[in-house]
Specification:
- The longest helix has 22 residues.
- Helices cover 67% and strands 3% of the residues.
- The protein has one domain.
- It starts with a helix and ends in an 18-residue tail after the last strand.
- Helix 1 packs across helix 4, helix 2 packs across helix 3 and helix 3 runs antiparallel to helix 4.
- It contains five helices and two strands.
- It is mostly helical.
- It is globular and about 40 Å long.
- Keywords: Signal.
Amino acid sequence: MKKILTHMLALFLFLGTNMLFAQTAPELAEKQTRLMAAKLKLDDKDHQKLYQFNLQRLEKIEALSKLREQDPRYLDMRLDQIEEEYHSLLFNSFNKKQFAAYQHYKKDQPYTYAGLTMKTNTIKPNNAIAIEVTD
């Protein structure tokens, strides 16, 4: 099933890059940030951090989509790595309540790589990351 997702994602990246990034990365990052900040109830400082994280994530995915040779295994590995880095940034920047709100927000979203969406939310990543929170 993961192979199907990878091939579909490669196809979306190959065919849909212009449509996905018809808006510039900063415009798309701002749109995503506004939606997330409203759900997570972020102040201005956290809103700005989230915008920077979203922008970095989108720029990395956009750069990845412009590779000439798109090996599905490499593409899948890099997309997973970009998502893990993004989640790690959020975990390290948000307080417990904000990160819990983000996790709840993420459950309501379809399985996505910064806007590239599957029609169902049935495909989940195989790897789980355990994070211990201490005060």
